[in-house]
Design a protein that fits this description.
The chain is α/β, with parallel strands linked by helices. About 60% of the residues lie in helices and about 10% in strands. β6, α15 and β7 form a beta-alpha-beta unit. The chain is extended. Pfam families: 6PGD (PF00393), BESS (PF02944), MADF_DNA_bdg (PF10545), NAD_binding_2 (PF03446).
Length: about 725
Amino acid sequence: MEKVFYGLNVEFFVEEIKNRPTIWDMRCETYKDRIKRNEAWMEVARQLYSNFDVMELEKQTAVLSELSKKWKNLRQCYKRELDSQCSKSGSAKKKRVQYVYFDILSFLAPMFSTKATTSNITVEEEDEDEEEEETEVGDESHLQVESSEETNQSSLRSFTASAKKSCKRKHEPENPVADICQFLKKSLEDKIAAEKRQKEKDEMDDDRQFLMSLLNYTRAVQEIHKLNMRSEVLQVVTKYYNMSRGSQPEQQSTHVRADIALIGLSVMGQNLILNMNDHGFVVCVYNRTVEKVDKFLANEAKGTKVIGARSIEEMVFKLKKPRRIMLLIKAGEAVDAFIKLLVPLLEPGDIIIDGGNSKYTDSTHRCKTLKEKGLFFVGSGVSGGDAIARYGPSLMSGGAVEAWPYIKNIFQSISAKVDGEPCCDWVGDEGSGHFVKMVHNGIEYGDIQLICETYHLLKDVLGLDHNEMCQIFNDWNKGESDSILLEITRHILKFKTNSQPLVDSASQKGTGECTVISALEYGMPASLIGEAVFARCLASLKEDRVSASKYLKGPSGLQYQGNKKEFIEHIRKGLYASKIVSYTQGFMLLREAAKVFNWELNYGAIAFIWRGGCITRSTFLGKIKAAFDKNPELPNLLRDQFFCKAIDNCQESWRHVVSTAVTLGIPTPAFSTALAFYDGFRSKTLPADLIQAQIDYFGSRTYELLSGPDKFIHTN
């Protein structure tokens, strides 16, 4: 624990003194200059007390007096310790406990020469010590010595006192407190006099008086118009300033106006900015921590057309109209806080874009609220991650459709391209852009879980090593199962490392959870996405699983006895069929939300947006686009001929994989729930009739009859 002396951090206090030799070094030229010494003491006080300059004069004097006393006390203790060490040797010296601050005060050693001298330095040092004979108040545990040492210290004090009496006859004692008080008083008088002179000067300044006369009119202007007013005033002043320098008005330089502003310099934010710059757009950047703006401009954005702003007001001023401002910050309160700052500075028709992972309900609310103020809000999902943002993300924009013509060129230019077409389009109204991004993330959860279960089957059922699995994924990625996630998995398995195996636990950011909650709210069976989320929850219970593995029994000693090559193909087909179910459930949820919110979603366009620049990208999505292009009202992907036939071709292998996994005790929740959904969806009848009867029995909830639907009956 740090030693604290009278509420002060002693080490910090001593360091500040040490940095100002004027206070303590009698060899310093300014040591005898009382004004310089007083100024040095005030600098120390400012370092220790941030509010020193606003204290009353009496309070400042008291603080400086106290600091002076503390310093004298420390210095005297150091001198006693130094003299004691110089007078001891051998075993006696070893018994002592050294003064706790001796080392940090060692810079004073030259001031306390042990040689007998009558120099001015020696006399002045005694003068300074003579001002106050004070021992350290409070705990003196840092002055621990043996009893014999105390006797010697007493003798030393007697000698010092005698020397001081001799000096007293030659010199009048200093009074630094009075000097400091006088100095502060004079400083205050000088400050008052300077302010008076400045006031008189201002009263004689016609330009200042003219500008001050406009103050009341300026304050009367509505906040929504103030930024434009300042801009126009600045242009007029600049015009006549240039004329006074001999410039022609038409030749005056103009400010560079940015096409779009981006707030938030995360890695993704920086990469999107550089992407926009590469496509010829001027971007104005702002970050709450302004130092990040300077650093970005000096490094990553050096040599580009990117411009910076050190305030929200400056950023808004530097934008072309209608102003386009994109937020890439943490979802939630931070977004609302920035919108609140922006609204007073903007004009009707200006556009605010939220590119974070905001909840679609928040985006809907913001869209409605800002529309009432004449502003356009866009909630845009940005997919692909930090690295992909640099060269082509997938963009899903929704909100105020009036904004689309003004941001379309920028967004489609920076997005990923597939067959020359941008993976970016207008999704729909209000919060639809963020809803589509949320469902995309939920499907991504499902895809990842399916590949993990595939890895588990190949490793634990077939006993394949990483090289063998790497080759399998490479082969699959050349056919109908092609996807970026298979490619990523292949790279991971190919990577050689000497480190220990990874922990079999996975975290989540919550986007999968949000998809499942929305599915429950709108009554859609997104069971595969749900199992993918729950699989991560189960995996996170690492300690419980390790413990349970010691006492919960399952199949033991069983091994797969079939043909490995054939089973690998069964797994591939089961993976493909399960993936069809995952996307089927995702688009069912999109369609139901569109009904609830009256959104006009283009499902074919959404599938194409996902074909590039995001984690779900695959050629498989081209088949989904084709299905919706052929029938925009398609209620379910399993009703499309291509997908119906594809699942039928995979069905036997799919069932074989799930049954084998169950037999061998290998968990495959995503494969299994996908198959269960398929069987449930194709069933003409399900046992829900019994559910009706049960809840009517114990809850009087009534039931319906096939012969009379929409007629509810209760039986006692």
